[in-house]
Amino acid sequence: MAHLEEVEGIVLYQRKHRERDFLVKIFTKRFGKIMFFVRGAKRPQGEIFQAIQPFTTATFIADIRESGLSFLRGAKEIEQKRDLQLDIFSNAYATYVSALADAAVEDRLPYPSLYHLLVTGLHLIDEGYNPEVISNILEVKFLVVFGVGPNFSACSICGKTKGIFDYSDKYHGILCSEHFLEDPRRLHVDPKAVHLVRLYSVMDLEKIGEISIKKSTQEEIKRLIDHIYDQLVGLSLKSKKFIDNLYKWEDTLRKDD
Ligand SMILES: [Zn+2]
C-alpha cells in the first residue's frame, strides 16, 4: 500500500509530459524539493490541477517514493497566486526567484528557512510589492544558502559598521571609505545601493514596509547584486536573462516616448 503524507509546499514549476500528464517540482516544507508525476485527468479543472499551477501553495497529499518520481494524490488549502500568473513583470520575477531557490539546494534536502523566505517573497509580490525589490532582497538572502555570503556587516578591514561603503571582490565584502585605497578595483558602486543591500541582508522580510527607491539607485543595486552572483555563484538562468531583457525593452520604450 502506498504511504501517503500530507505536506505543505509551493509549486516551483510544472512541465507537460506527453499529452496530458505533468511533471511538477514542489518545494515542500518538510522534505525539501521533490519532483512529482501527475497523471492527466478527464477533468483538467479539478482540484489537483489548480494546485499544480506555478507559485501555488497547498497541503498536498503525496505519495513520496524513496527514489524516482513521487506522485500527487490530492491537494487542499489551495492558494493560487493570480497576480503572479497574469502580470508579466511579477511573473518574470516570481519565475526567477523560484528558479534561484531551486538552484540553491539539492532536491530532497529539507530547508525550512529557505522555504519560508520563498513563500513570503512570492506572497509579497502577489500582494503588489515591487517585484524587483522583493527579488533583490531574496537574492541577497539566498547568497548564504549558496554558501558564498560576502561580508555585508562591517568594513572587511577595520570592522567599522557606519559610514560610506563600497564593495570589494578582493576582500569578499564591503570596505569603509577610509579603506577604499586598499582596493583600487573596488566596484565603485553608489553608497546608497550598498546601504540598501546591507539592509536587505539583515531585514525581516515579514516586517517589510513601503520601500521607494530611486531608479538610479535601483540600477546600482542590480549592478552590485548581479556582479556578486556572476563572481561568486555563476549561474546562467533563462529566467534571469528574461528579466535583463525586460530591462532593456523598458529603456527602449522610454527612448521612443
Ligand atoms: Zn575600514
Which key phrases capture this entry?
257 residues; de novo design (two linked rop proteins); 2 domains; 5-stranded mixed β-barrel; elongated; binds zinc ion; RecO_C; DNA repair; DNA damage; DNA_rep/recomb_RecO_N
For the largest beta-sheet, the strand count, sense and barrel status come to: 5 strands, mixed, barrel
C-alpha-based Rg, rounded: 20 Å
Q: Can you tell me the CATH class of the largest domain?
A: Mainly Alpha
Number of strands: 7
Supply the number of structural domains: 2
Shape: elongated
Which CATH-level-2 architecture of the largest domain?
Up-down Bundle
Distance between the termini: 64 Å
The pLDDT mean sits at: 93
**Strand order across the largest sheet:** 1-2-3-5-4
Instruction: Return the structural class.
Output: alpha+beta
Characterize the structure shown:
The protein is an alpha+beta fold. The protein has two domains: 77 residues, Nucleic acid-binding proteins (OB fold (Dihydrolipoamide Acetyltransferase, E2P)), CATH 2.40.50.140; 126 residues, Up-down Bundle (de novo design (two linked rop proteins)). 42% of the residues lie in helices and 21% in strands. A five-stranded mixed barrel has the order 1-2-3-5-4. The longest helix is centred in the last third of the chain and has 19 residues. The radius of gyration is 20 Å and the shape is elongated. The termini are far apart. The mean pLDDT is 93. The structure holds zinc ion. Zinc ion (ZN) binds next to loops. Belongs to the RecO family. InterPro entries: ARFGAP/RecO (IPR037278), DNA_rep/recomb_RecO_N (IPR022572), NA-bd_OB-fold (IPR012340), RecO (IPR003717), RecO_C (IPR042242). It comes from Atopostipes suicloacalis DSM 15692.
